[in-house]
From TrEMBL:
Protein name: peptide-methionine (R)-S-oxide reductase
Catalytic activity: L-methionyl-[protein] + [thioredoxin]-disulfide + H2O = L-methionyl-(R)-S-oxide-[protein] + [thioredoxin]-dithiol
Keyword tags: Oxidoreductase
GO BP term, example: protein repair
Domain of life the protein comes from: Bacteria
One Pfam family recorded for the sequence: SelR
Domain MsrB: 26-148
InterPro entries assigned to the protein according to its UniProt record, in alphabetical order: Met_Sox_Rdtase_MsrB, Met_Sox_Rdtase_MsrB_dom, Mss4-like_sf
GO cellular component: cytoplasm
Keyword check for Chaperone: no
Source organism of the structure: Pontibacter indicus
Listed GO MF terms: peptide-methionine (R)-S-oxide reductase activity
Enzyme Commission number(s) of this protein: 1.8.4.12
């Protein structure tokens, strides 16, 4: 389980190494992403609160990076944070997310990025539920939800 001190350590010193990396030119990203996805994932934008695909969705499944398909979050870690964006308490794995300090918009935050392709996902805060107290506030447009396969009888 990741805690706030882990997030600060990663942002300050070194993020976990992903098992592989995906690198594309910006023109390649423009070809594979919608304009809205490009604005959020590659230009660090933010989609409007509450009017997004996964804000009020709590069905079982796995959330992947919309740009590269890397598994980022499990629906079991999703909760209703009343923030306007999907919120998660933990990533799917320790190395799924890369963390960076973000001083934009006159705020000090920790940016959450896909650790495989470097796409902007959202931010992580230390005001989430116990036991870890983390809230990953993620743009819906940066995610793709994979439905869980039904179990065979």
């Amino acid at each position: 389980m990741l805690r706030w001190k882990d997030i600060i350590y990663y942002a300050k010193y070194s993020n976990p190494e992903p098992s592989y990396r995906i690198e594309k030119t910006e023109s390649e990203w423009r070809r594979v992403l919608t304009p809205t996805q490009y604005a959020v994932l590659r230009e660090k934008g933010t989609e409007p609160p509450y009017r997004n695909a996964y804000c009020r969705s709590y069905e079982p499944g796995t959330y992947t990076c919309a740009a590269c398909g890397q598994v980022l979050f499990n629906a079991t870690e999703k909760y209703h944070a009343i923030s306007g964006w999907p919120s998660f308490t933990q990533p799917a794995s320790r190395g799924a997310i890369r963390y960076a300090f973000d001083d934009s918009h006159h705020m000090q935050r920790i940016e959450a990025l896909c650790n495989v392709c470097g796409s902007h996902l959202g931010h992580v805060f230390h005001d989430g539920p116990e036991p870890a107290g983390l809230r990953y506030c993620i743009n819906s447009v940066s995610l793709k939800k994979l439905e869980d396969e039904p179990e065979a009888p």
